[in-house]
Amino acid sequence: MIRLEDVARAAGVSKSTASRALSRPDLVAAGTREKVQRLAAEMGLSLNPAARALFTGRTGTVAMVVPSLTNPYFGPILAGAQRELSASGGHALISSASDGDREVELAASLLGHADGVLLVTPRAPEERLRELATRIPLAVIDRPVPELPAYVADTPRGVGLLAAHLLELGHRRIGYVGGPDGSSLDRLRIDAAQDRVRTAGGRLDVVGSESPDLDTGLRLAAHWPFDDDVTAVVAYSSYIALGLLIGLRERGVEVPGRMSVAAVDHLAAVGGNGSGPLLTALRVPLEELGRAAAAALVGSTPAPAEVTRIGTELLLGRSTGAPAPRSPRGT
């Protein structure tokens, strides 16, 4: 069995230099790095995870912490990160945390067991996240945290595009169903929508939601929280929007027409029958977010401590159209 010592001896370097050439190639001169890597490949050096940790100080494991394992929004992010890790010979350790304190506790407990941590939509205060990053390599997904590697879908700009689409159709009173309390990104989305609507001389009415799921949309459709002048609604998630569609149609409210419905993500944007998707929504590059953040942790150079924004795309569906003169309360 070929050992790291064998490769180091053949390359004429120390074991520690050979280790760095394989695990942290940015720290080794190009000529030495290429020689060690070539010999390792030719000699068939293969390190299992335990040996890798012993020789290189790296486990090959990246931990990913999400607020919930049942929310479908996080699935594509995790899948993208796992694909990136697999491509580099690593693997993921996935866990969930119900609040900001638990997020930090979980990440801190992984010191020595993981090469880094991906926090997805973390809720801990920025100061605690920055302090945590001094102890373990850290990247943040879907929350713009200054001074940390953060990878964010530019949904605020996308929501501005959604609002512009509805305004172009003729809507001037637009409702917005927000996300759970504490979502800083949702606050930015609301601000973007308000700017667009106010500039056009309209008004945005905002209500909150307990959870971004189908039941929330059904409940809001049954107990309509907006007044009669609202002719379009943008929902925090496509599952809320889908619940609104079902609930409004059960009440006999024509969608679109008497009410247009759009969503900030495309996860439930299904129902195409040859005439396009059912739901007008943003295509959010969730897998790309996961891949970019994972690559930042396993790359040979440290990730920049800055916010990287990845654009969204407006997908037009059959749930939005020009407003009819009547409102939902006419039923």
From TrEMBL:
Pfam families, A to Z: LacI, Peripla_BP_3
Keywords: DNA-binding, Transcription, Transcription regulation
One MF annotation (Gene Ontology) recorded for this entry: DNA binding
The UniProt record lists the keyword Ion transport: no
HTH lacI-type domain boundaries: 2-56
Source superkingdom: Bacteria
The keyword DNA-binding is annotated on this UniProt entry: yes
SMART domains: HTH_LACI (SM00354)
Xref: Gene3D superfamilies: 3.40.50.2300, lambda repressor-like DNA-binding domains (1.10.260.40)
Family annotation (PANTHER family): HTH-TYPE TRANSCRIPTIONAL REGULATOR GALS, LACI-RELATED TRANSCRIPTIONAL REPRESSOR
Name of the protein this chain belongs to: LacI family DNA-binding transcriptional regulator
The species this protein was found in: Pseudonocardia nematodicida
